[in-house]
Amino acid sequence: MPTSPSAALACPRCATPLVSLSPGAAAGGFSVQCTRCGLRVRLDSPSAAGGGAGPASGAPPAFGPGRGGGSMAPRLLGGALEILGLIASGLGALALAGLGVAQGMFRPMLKDLGGELPALTAFMLATRFPFVLAALVLGLAAGALAIRLRGGSQGRWLLGAALALVLVGAPVCIVSMYLPIFSLADSIK
Predict the structure, then answer these.
(1) What DSSP string runs through 29-66?
(2) Are 16 and 32 in contact, with CB atoms under 8 Å apart?
(3) Residue spans per domain, the chain
(4) Percent of the chain at pLDDT above 70?
(5) Distance between CA atoms of 89 and 76, rounded to whole angstroms?
(6) Is the distance from CB of 48 to CB of 9 less than 8 angstroms?
(7) Helices and strands per DSSP (H, E), number in the chain
(8) Helix-helix angle 155-188:80-113, to 10 degrees
(9) What is the pLDDT of residues 145-181, one digit of tens each?
(10) Positive or negative CA dihedral for 77, 81, 82, 87?
(11) Residue 89: is it exposed, middle or buried by C-beta count within 10 angstroms (0-12/13-18/19+)?
(12) Would you call 176 helix, strand, or coil by DSSP?
């Protein structure tokens, strides 16, 4: 008796191969979860080998514990850390924009001080660098969100880059605003 080839089951949402079933496999009553998009697919009786699988009824929510008490794998947007990262990136972009506004308020005072501005301060004022950083952070966060909503995992790297820009850029902007005051205090001695 010739053996029939094994049947492969793919995710109905993203077409990721989930499981290969041998010809005589009994696949009744259990479900698998797609590693790419998080969709749960229930393998029903023998028709599952022919592609009769559908989403599991009563699938647990995307975040938090499932019905059985276990933790759930993230679905489209990811876990709570990614959501917190998106919020932190947005708040960081707002903080950088606020530093840009404050730098604009410092500009007349720095002109009244006279003398040459430190190179970092002159660069920050000439390029409006805090606003550039804020735009970059928002662009990276928006790119990360778009990639994650399409089911990719590379958005985490963009989100990490956005947070790194905030964590490095904000202190540099703050130091650039205080450098003229430090140089003035140094000349008084």
Answers:
(1) SEEEE-TTT--EEEE-TGGGGGT--EEPTTPPPSSSB-
(2) no
(3) 1-72, 80-188
(4) 70
(5) 19
(6) yes
(7) 4, 5
(8) 30
(9) 888 888 777 778 888 899 999 999 999 999 988 888 8
(10) positive
(11) buried
(12) helix
What is the C-alpha separation between 158 and 142, in angstroms, rounded?
Answer: 9
| Largest interatomic CA distance in the chain | 99
- For the stretch 40-96, pLDDT in tens is 777 664 444 444 444 444 444 444 444 444 444 444 456 777 888 889 999 999 999
* 112-118-120-126 Cα dihedral, nearest 10 degrees: 40
In angstroms, how far is the first alpha carbon of the chain from the final one? Answer: 99
**pTM here?**
0.55
Residue 87's alpha-carbon distances to 68, 132, 157, in angstroms, are 30, 19, 15
In this structure, are residues 7 and 21 in contact, taking their beta carbons and an 8 Å threshold? yes
- pLDDT at residue number 52: 45
Q: What is the dihedral of CA 14, 17, 22, 25, to 10 degrees?
A: -50
Report whether 76 contacts 37 (CB < 8 A).
yes
Residue 78, classed as helix, strand or coil, is coil
- Kindly give the interhelix angle for 155-188 and 119-127, rounded to the nearest 10 degrees: 130
For residue 106, give the amino acid letter.
F
